[in-house]
Design a protein that fits this description.
With 57 residues, the chain is mostly helical. Helices cover 65% and strands 7% of the residues.
Length: 57
């Protein structure tokens, strides 16, 4: 949990950065963020190949 503008520990900061990066990558490649989050929760996140394949389609 964020405390006074900082993360309580480095592990939580790493989790936040990883999730934010995934969401931003999906946004920039016109992938529905809700769908991307659901896939990640189901342990089937978009792969780089899937993201790049969506750009070329």
């Amino acid at each position: 949990m964020k405390v006074s503008g900082q993360f309580a520990n480095i592990k939580n900061a790493e989790y936040f950065a990883r999730i934010k990066s995934y969401i931003e990558t999906c946004k920039r490649n016109d992938i529905n963020v809700h769908t991307a989050i659901v896939k990640a929760i189901e342990d089937k996140p978009y792969t780089v190949q899937e993201i790049l394949g969506k750009q070329e389609a």
